[in-house]
Amino acid sequence: MSLIPTSAVAEHASRDSCWIIVHSKVYDVTEFLDEHPGGSKIILKYAGGDATEAYEPIHPPNAILDNLPIEKHIGAIDPNTVVKVVKQVTEADKRRQALMDARPPLDEILNLHDFEAVAKVVLPEKAWAYYSSASDDEITIRENRAAFQRVWFRPRILRDVSSVDWSTTILGCKSSLPVYISATALGKLGHPDGELNLTRAAAKHGVIQMIPTLASCSFDEIVDAASPGQPLFLQLYVNRDREITKKYVQHAEKRGVKALFITVDAPQLGRREKDMRMKSVDDSAGAKVQENQSGVKKDQGVSRAISSFIDPSLSWKDIPWFRSITNMHIILKGVSTPEDAILAYEAGCQGIVLSNHGGRQLDTSRSGLENLVDIVAALKQRGPWPNPNFSVFVDGGVRRASDVIKALALGASAVGIGRGFLYAFSSYGQEGVERAIEILRDEFEMNMRLIGARTISEIVPDMVDASALHSHVGITPSDNLYNGTYQPLGTAQFRQAKL
Amino acid sequence: MSLIPTSAVAEHASRDSCWIIVHSKVYDVTEFLDEHPGGSKIILKYAGGDATEAYEPIHPPNAILDNLPIEKHIGAIDPNTVVKVVKQVTEADKRRQALMDARPPLDEILNLHDFEAVAKVVLPEKAWAYYSSASDDEITIRENRAAFQRVWFRPRILRDVSSVDWSTTILGCKSSLPVYISATALGKLGHPDGELNLTRAAAKHGVIQMIPTLASCSFDEIVDAASPGQPLFLQLYVNRDREITKKYVQHAEKRGVKALFITVDAPQLGRREKDMRMKSVDDSAGAKVQENQSGVKKDQGVSRAISSFIDPSLSWKDIPWFRSITNMHIILKGVSTPEDAILAYEAGCQGIVLSNHGGRQLDTSRSGLENLVDIVAALKQRGPWPNPNFSVFVDGGVRRASDVIKALALGASAVGIGRGFLYAFSSYGQEGVERAIEILRDEFEMNMRLIGARTISEIVPDMVDASALHSHVGITPSDNLYNGTYQPLGTAQFRQAKL
Amino acid sequence: MSLIPTSAVAEHASRDSCWIIVHSKVYDVTEFLDEHPGGSKIILKYAGGDATEAYEPIHPPNAILDNLPIEKHIGAIDPNTVVKVVKQVTEADKRRQALMDARPPLDEILNLHDFEAVAKVVLPEKAWAYYSSASDDEITIRENRAAFQRVWFRPRILRDVSSVDWSTTILGCKSSLPVYISATALGKLGHPDGELNLTRAAAKHGVIQMIPTLASCSFDEIVDAASPGQPLFLQLYVNRDREITKKYVQHAEKRGVKALFITVDAPQLGRREKDMRMKSVDDSAGAKVQENQSGVKKDQGVSRAISSFIDPSLSWKDIPWFRSITNMHIILKGVSTPEDAILAYEAGCQGIVLSNHGGRQLDTSRSGLENLVDIVAALKQRGPWPNPNFSVFVDGGVRRASDVIKALALGASAVGIGRGFLYAFSSYGQEGVERAIEILRDEFEMNMRLIGARTISEIVPDMVDASALHSHVGITPSDNLYNGTYQPLGTAQFRQAKL
Amino acid sequence: MSLIPTSAVAEHASRDSCWIIVHSKVYDVTEFLDEHPGGSKIILKYAGGDATEAYEPIHPPNAILDNLPIEKHIGAIDPNTVVKVVKQVTEADKRRQALMDARPPLDEILNLHDFEAVAKVVLPEKAWAYYSSASDDEITIRENRAAFQRVWFRPRILRDVSSVDWSTTILGCKSSLPVYISATALGKLGHPDGELNLTRAAAKHGVIQMIPTLASCSFDEIVDAASPGQPLFLQLYVNRDREITKKYVQHAEKRGVKALFITVDAPQLGRREKDMRMKSVDDSAGAKVQENQSGVKKDQGVSRAISSFIDPSLSWKDIPWFRSITNMHIILKGVSTPEDAILAYEAGCQGIVLSNHGGRQLDTSRSGLENLVDIVAALKQRGPWPNPNFSVFVDGGVRRASDVIKALALGASAVGIGRGFLYAFSSYGQEGVERAIEILRDEFEMNMRLIGARTISEIVPDMVDASALHSHVGITPSDNLYNGTYQPLGTAQFRQAKL
Question: Where does the Cytochrome b5 heme-binding domain lie (chains A, B, C, D) (predicted)?
């Protein structure tokens, strides 16, 4: 393959002939322009030039290779023709660096909310929008959090809790916490090391990481970063091309992954308006209102850029096929109803995750925690319970060890935390993740003592009052006239102080 | 008929003799002054002059002809005597134009709320007050929205949703969406083309428009703007003079209208204080407090200007008469109770709309969505269900395709959207309406996939949890002393950043 | 009785010998100082001088005569010695007058809330504090309002509502509204004509006024202001001295009062902190913190100034005595439980008012509307229902005709409005009260049409959904960390407009 | 023991050899550094110098003696070598003094909230953080308050309430109120006289004080300050070394303490982030972000400084031992479930306190008031009720006499108030506590009259409606797009006033 000079690439800088450079390789994307899930506009911005910087944090490493026919792989760029661009430090870069310098010291981070508050400030706006957004009115994402606060504790007293132990076994793997790191996409948007931050912290603290299909780091990079014997799970978006999926799954098994979490709640990615909005503002600031030109589709945020990798035809019929290609545990991630929980059980899966995808898919779906109650009841009726061969996990809205304990009391085997760890490394890298695990550990110690449970198995249904869990009620809209006129009471007033 | 010079009109500029010009015709309205639903004051403002500009957006085109005896139609104005007035561009006009220029580009409009937010800014205050207002404390209008958020999804997974189809048939007419454009009055307040924006967009996208009795455009203008075979419905306020109504209904049928939606929740128009308030401020800004002068009635906003066209004596006895004058489907719009739903069914109607008139009539009425549950239960007991000869529609508070899907799951045949489309053309004309339809289409595609329904008929009751729908509870008033003293928790604090 | 020169009064200006002038009469109040319910401090402020201005709005006209032994009535002041004081117009007076001039014109007052909003601005602070305050945390006063919003309408359609009639009969007296004017004390704090504003407006509009024991105007002044045959009720605080009460009741009956409403919820007046607070601020603004001096009691607001007129020993044993001294209807005002409602019925009363004294007595008492449901159920079980000899009234929190209709649907005979009318005359005098009645009339017309009731008797239980009335629930305290970090969604953004 | 010069102490100012002076005694704390519950950093700050000022308000007086082996007690400081340091008056001191001078006069303090509002302003930040903080999200602390507002009164009327009596007997001791002063730690943080303020005020007003294990004053100082025969209770944290506990308990009994309240809800102190946060800000203001250095643990607020005195192994097995060492009543403080209430009863205890430690331990625990209903029901089933040998107390969130009455109606014998009195003396010393008692007395008088109860025994279950107590429900997260666009109604507008 001969080397291509940058000047040759620069000649293909139009919609009619569009070449781009990614990681020193040249690709002809002219025919791909209209198929690009993220829209053609963003590609055309780099037409005839190097798109690596924009490409990298948003795409799985091999995305372009997988999606572009081999004949469009033009060749390698001639390094001698590449002018080393001194990267401009923008005002935004400087501002972000100043904020990074002003972060609270890590030992002032007291809970998982703190990471989120820091990340909100130091993340590039686009990354914050992608990570924090959820679908439609973002009701489900908030309900996920709120649901935990409708479960109340019934703590037991006078048990000798000198030593408490919150370690457990998840799908046959030892875990120092009843918590696993759930898959979240595109970690490099938040930190240059991306998902490796999680892998390294997980190794150090005996926690299990679920590797996302849409990681910014490649699967192998992540596995390579793991320590010997470190248990890993894999989250799977099923590709329209089943051969790609098969190869991917079997490769994962070969590399030692213990369980396969097939995402079943995303036949199409949700509309995440915060993410879409951010993109719009970015592109068109200061622009004049334009009449909508048919045929030109706007870019629609990061979410849409990754959705074509997902097959909407995935169905129950595919489960036996998965069973046939792998011996890993098969877990369905994104179950919401007792009906589907029973179907999963009958299909021979080893478990389910009660999840609504962090509120990013179907808005006004109920929370995993709420569904847990109904689903555990249904599984109890259907078969043995607890069932060592069928695990029920929950994710969504978890911020505290006390949340986890509530889920365990209601029947969950373990709980997934996604954004919590994502924000931890986005704000403080690997050390942030380690601090997050430490905080959870401190919280587990305290809460297990205070609830009167010495081991995970002593966390029982009687320790919670979940009677309010199903009552997500609505309030009569307020009487603004009355409330506007009513003068609230105040407390006693100080005199003018001589300060 | 001889032509009348403007100077002759100008001589009749008092309460004792009051002539006005509307659309180049001269009318003697002296005796009509006290009957004018909008009050005499607004007419007297134009006494002896041309009232067209004020008349036009508020009145149905033929209002003056229908309401003034023929002998008061003085004649046509002599065009040679008319001084062409160069319309002054006011500061308010300039301001509004500047805001129009600054509107968000249409492709940044991501949901139906966005149209409302834009309309709120760019609409003349009077139009916004008329469109957005509802009755009394505006509790029902907000409850309409809130009710949808008390219904939660129970999404099904692993169904092959490669292709999903949300088209349907409404009263025998094809519709590309399970949504119709519900009637709203006085479209020209929002856009010079008024209701025609809807007609044209509906034609283009296969959606059904319900023509309002109180349109700013005449009935025939709207029908003329429709494309061949485009299905149209008609909303009817029943006039005190049944002959006028008969003529109107039979004309509509002749012109191809498919169904007649008789409004039954408005024997009198509601008190819409936001609208009334706007009028007051308008008239009396800067005025000194005046003792109330008996006999002089203030103008009471746009709503009152149109209420005399409605007959409060309309009753069940009239239904057979309607049946006798038309073969169109007859639908009662504004049903709230199972009792009345059964009466409508027994009276031989083809359907009902569960509606509280967008919260504009009886405040603290329950929402259509809430009533749907009880009414479907009653209809099931009474006859076959679903019943191809009796449709149940819902309107009020709909902003998302997910709202529509909830209503369909609970038994509705289709859902009406009024203000959503009204704000769409008020802010962006016909293109706004088209964009609104596109947005709904995108949302239907996503939501049907995510809920696991491939067609409208696969949307079933099990897909929603409506257990909270009836719980519009009240909250203990807050303890202001406690809340005022309690210091909320905050997150970790940044150091002073060097920005 | 010889005339006393002002100089002679001035000699008694100390705690040891304290004379004051009220309405040109001289009184020796030395021994009364410590008994004064409002504290001695306020009297000492006027020692040796004229206290009329401070006395008048707060005391019933004959309070000083009734409470001071005859030998302490020194005599009449010598008018020749009185220096006509030119009343200083203070900054506060000027400010208040400027605000009065700027009031919204009366025809812009659209509902009863508006009067309250105006009164809040134009009333002297002390008057506002006294009128608007309620006990403890003011939870019940707000709950009174909130309760109405937990009752929802089930409107009926297609009834001929051309003419609707909301007049009724209350305890045998005709009333143009199903509403009476409930007693509120000290009307002159709000307007120089005090309660007469109500009497005159009631005469003009056929409404019944309940005269308060603690009126600023004397009982006879009020009755004298009534038109011939105008029905009046009397609210009674029972005095420790039953002879005073007997004289008062029999005088009222002689003067034609139709019904006696005995207040039973106030054996002691509630602590109304807003009122107490106002007094404190008034007295001690700018003062230095003083150690509490035992023995010196602070004034405690207007409420406390009137409480000694009320006998805490009043009990069921007194009811037969009342029956023995009068033939007027006897109604117990302030009933909250079915148990007491039955006792009242069995004691031969003609009715009860379900009231919590406008939230001014026992805080966190339930609302009259909520109690209505339980009490009507109990009365139904006990005897005939509806019972022409036993009426159930409700008051508290009523602001709209729709509130009244809800109470009637649930079984009330009529509804009392206190503060609504009080604020009406405080802001606009008699015309305010008339406007308030007009507004209610307009609201009754609209609401009865919209609910489908042509007469009061057609307002039936099926027209309301009161299922949420008993659910005054509490909400989980919010997760401030989560809510503080969560970034709410916004709508599309405008570009910078050229304004 | 020879005297040690300050210069000799100053030589031991490092981690390798660390001496400090406390109350003129010298201690070698080198080996204790890592065991110090409050962290080593705070000790090292005073290494080689006098730590008394920092030590005093935070530690029980004999803490250092009890925890440091005798061989580390180096000796007494040579007073001749001590340089009298003129205490610097800092800006913060001056500011606090100015605020103290500007406090509202005590007679303007109308309720217990007022004390809290004043304390919030005048307390040193660290003290406020320690006193006001609660665990995790501080949900339970607020729920404690909110629970009372979910219980509503059903007041009875027409009972002769001329005289009402709210005195009672608590565990055999007379009390002028059905309230006792609950234990709170470290009173000297708020006032130099610490817990003695409570002792003296309790003596004067016939109220019972519960002495805290972690008082700033020593146990004997408090008992010495009591008047003859003044009843006292003792709150107990059980030490890991049972001999210390035994000595302490038996000493208390000897000195006349009547009842022992063993804290059972604190095997480990809760994480109180407000307190931890305060510490962080204090230490590191202006510091640069540092990478976390492993091995160095940050100080974690006042709470952690006292936690090692508590034994997490305390269990039911210890109860017989307590019974064997004392004849005092034994009460378990911190019971939350009927199961444990029954166990306490069967273990021969004389009572329980339904408490969640003021929200400072397990967050999202239910309130004592809510648990009261279930626990009383369980006790009724188990044995005689009311049971003179087994009392049920409640604490948490009490601010008003009406709260107490609600708890009594639901079955409590008396109610504990902790923070209310703590804030009273923090803001006004002993007089504050007396004022607090007076306020409660006034509130009891009013409320008992208004509810119709003349004695404590007449407060019966029928007087409250607790049906909402268990409903701590969650609300659907709000639709921010809708709410942001909805324009709330306002009242009529004033014209521009000429002020």
Answer: 1-78
Inter-chain contacts counted by CB atoms under 8 A, chains A and D: 198
- CA-nearest residue of chain A to C399? A482
Helix (H) or strand (E) holding C175: strand C173-175
Q: Enter the tokens of residue A19.
A: 């070449």
Our measurement of the distance from residue B86's CA atom to the centroid of its chain's CA atoms, rounded to an integer in Å, reads: 33
Which of chain A's residues have a Cβ under 8 Å away from the Cβ of D479? 137, 139
Q: What is the DSSP letter of B365?
A: B
Retrieve residue D82's tokens: 């001590």
Q: Does the beta carbon of A87 lie under 8 angstroms from any beta carbon of chain C?
A: no
Q: Which domains does chain C have, with CATH numbers?
A: 6-76 (3.10.120.10), 134-280+303-465 (3.20.20.70)
Taking residue D85's Cβ as centre, other Cβ atoms within 10 Å add up to 8
| ipTM score | 0.88
Question: Model confidence over A66-108: pLDDT tens digits?
Answer: 778 888 888 899 988 888 777 788 888 899 999 999 999 999 9
In angstroms, rounded to a whole number, what is the distance separating the alpha carbons of residues A138 and A397?
13
Distance between CA atoms of residues B135 and B273, nearest Å: 7
What pLDDT was estimated at residue C138? 93
Catalytic residue among D237, D345, D423, D428: D237
- Report pLDDT for C289: 31
- Euclidean distance between CA atoms B438 and B456, whole angstroms: 18
Q: pLDDT tens for residues C74-101?
A: 889 998 888 877 778 888 889 999 999 9
Mean pLDDT of chain A: 89
Quote the DSSP letter at residue A213. Answer: T
**In the block, which residue shows the tokens 């030039």?**
A49
Percent of chain B with pLDDT over 70: 92
In chain D, which among 110-169 make CB contacts under 8 A with chain B?
111, 113, 116-117, 120, 132, 137-138, 142, 145-146, 149-150
B396-410: average pLDDT: 97
Mutate to test the interface with D, among A157, A400, A451, A472 (most CBs of D within 10 A): A157
Per-position DSSP letters for D176-215, written without gaps between them: SSSEEE---S-GGGT-TTTTHHHHHHHHHHT-EEEEPTT-
Angle separating helix axes B125-132 and B112-122, nearest 10 degrees: 140
Q: Are strands C168-170 and C173-175 parallel, antiparallel or unpaired?
A: antiparallel
Mean pLDDT of chain B: 89
Reference C202, options C178, C184, C171, C180; nearest CA is C180
Q: Compare all CA atoms of chain B with the CA of C475 and give the residue at the minimum distance.
A: B475
C-alpha distances (whole Å) from B246 to each of B171, B241, B311, B325 are 22, 9, 14, 7
C135 → chain A, closest CA residue = A489
Per residue in C177-223, pLDDT (tens digit) is 999 999 998 899 999 999 999 999 999 999 999 999 989 899 999 99
Chain C CB contacts of D429 below 8 Å: none
pTM here is 0.91
Structure tokens belonging to residue A317: 């019929």
Encode pLDDT of A133-192 as tens digits. 999 999 999 999 999 999 999 999 999 999 999 999 999 999 999 999 999 988 999 999
CA A302 to chain centre: 13
User: Residue B309 — very low, low, confident or very high, per pLDDT cuts 50/70/90?
Assistant: low
Cα-based distances in Å from B450 to B164, B410, C74: 11, 18, 90
CB contact under 8 A, D99 and A465: no
What sign for the dihedral angle of Cα C140, C142, C143, C145?
positive
Q: What digits encode the pLDDT tens for the residues B102-132?
A: 999 999 999 999 999 999 999 999 899 999 9
Distance of CA B146 to the CA centre of its chain: 19
Just list the catalytic residues of B: 237, 265, 357
- Number of other residues whose CB lies within 10 A of the CB of residue D94: 12
